[in-house]
Amino acid sequence: MATGDDPPQFRVLGTFEVTRGGRRCTPTAPKQRALLALLALHANEFVPTSRIVDQLWSRDAPRSAVAALHGYVTAVRRVLTPSRVSSRNSHPVLSTRPSGYVLVLEPHQLDLTRFRALAKEGQGAMAAGDCAHAWDRFCAALRLWRGSPLADLRGTGAFDHDIARLEKEYLELLRNRFDVMLCNGDGHLAVFDLEELCQTHPLWEGFHEQLMLALCQAERRADALTAYARAYRLLSNHAGIEPGPRLRSLHQLILNGDDPLDRVHRHERATTGSEPARTASP
Ligand SMILES: [Zn+2]
């Protein structure tokens, strides 16, 4: 059962959230919340005071910033500390180092750590040809997302860089998952989502490529050519560039009437029934 003495849980894949013993304890003061979010994004890394000050005050820090930061650290520790533990420098979660801090978290205490571990496991499974396991891991990783990362900390602009990085990891995971769908021959199920992603992230050529492949798999080669024309237009309008070599050669393959599905992930699929029946060990 969850109690107030449980280690705090941090979530950054959505609104920033801290819970302890199942209860939300996210600091409401904006700078305290930003401080904790910043440390959570760099869990188990040393974060210099100078960097925290720069990010929290957007390089416009008053002379009193460092003193104010000490006050925030004390306040935040109170939130993180079970009543019976002293909240001095030897704090078990937020530890003070010379000229900086470290938020010490076990993997299960941060959704981002779990997300990255699942993504890596999924990629490993795919490389090993186990797309069923990869699918399971990728879906579990996606379920950790509760919305736009750090949605409540967007206003300040202080987290722009971190948010962009998280969004990139999210999109990469979607790409991996579409690869599994294509490998399974489920391209027709991916078309709708890919069309949307091509509009919202027009510069991700990988999505255009996957959309063209998905359309070919759905026996819609003419639509795949239209998708290429649209990708061409989007890339040109948004960035003044032309499709890269991968997209161009895929287009050429489809024009030539060749099989573009050679490009999708292939693994040795166990043919049902061909495996010798395993008997349980006595
Ligand atoms: Zn596969």
TrEMBL record:
Q: Boundaries of each OmpR/PhoB-type domain copy? A: 1-105
Molecular function (GO) terms for this protein are: DNA binding
Q: Name one GO biological process term.
A: phosphorelay signal transduction system
Spans through the membrane: none
Specify whether Zinc-finger is a keyword of the entry. no
Is Transcription a UniProt keyword of this protein?
yes
Highest taxon, organism lineage: Bacteria
Which Pfam families has this protein been placed in?
BTAD, Trans_reg_C
Per the record, DNA-binding region residues lie at: 1-105
Keywords of the record, alphabetical order, are: DNA-binding, Transcription, Transcription regulation
Please name the PANTHER family in this protein's record: TRANSCRIPTIONAL REGULATOR REDD, TRANSCRIPTIONAL REGULATOR REDD-RELATED
Q: Which family, according to the similarity comment?
A: Belongs to the AfsR/DnrI/RedD regulatory family.
What name does UniProt use for this protein? DNA-binding transcriptional activator of the SARP family
Q: Native species of this protein?
A: Lentzea albida
Q: What lineage is this protein's organism placed in?
A: Bacteria, Bacillati, Actinomycetota, Actinomycetes, Pseudonocardiales
